[in-house]
Amino acid sequence: MAGEVTLTISQGIGTIEFFHPKGNSLPSQLLNELCNAIDTAGSNSEVSVVVLRSKGSGAFCAGASFDELLAIENDEKARVFFSGFGRVILSMKNCPKFIVCRVQGKAVGGGVGLIAASDYAIASEAASVKLSELSIGFGPFVIAPAVIRKIGVSAFSTLTVDSKKWKSSSWALEKGLFNSVEHDEAALDNSLNELATSLSSYSKEAMMHIKTTFWEGFEDLETELDQRARLSGKLSQSDTTQHILSAIKKS
User: Fold this and answer.
1) pTM for this structure?
2) Contact at 8 Å (CB) between 101 and 121?
């Protein structure tokens, strides 16, 4: 199965749901579809607020496709690969509507970036987070601006250095990655529906201007993300990373 991204619109709420059988990971095709869905919802006059969610009760998002990473052959293909989540983050930043993220389970790497790039994140207690990139041989460079914007350099460094350790939903709430944490998925959905319904009745113009303030200082983000994707791509092709990837292939 290749996975899917869907957009449904009802009563002013645009719900974007993504799915992939491998832990809701996001290969390049799905990242492109996710960008298109966010852009479409942002430009649709019937949408007042966007809800971003993944399908199922398991992981929220396992990050980029590891199968694609293993198949990369050169720096340029690696740059394109690492640009995927950067394009989604840009779409989320540029979307004139608030994006509320529903996080029901674990989030790794780029999945943490999606949460950080949202305007509000509601999670369940099962939603732990991890940035595993350093343990593979590179780093979470592309998502770093969005994550640091939300939780600061200190918490970002903790996630980055402790690359094999999961951080709990309570840790993510304390650091500001999550805005609220609910006991279970039923409570999560009740809280999400209540917030989205309220936001759908608010002034679109006011929310658009408020969102602009959330991203002040990030006017050159597109250029920065491209540079970070190039760095990630170069590191992914290094002897150190290739040795780690080869060991993973054999395991």
Assistant:
1) 0.96
2) yes
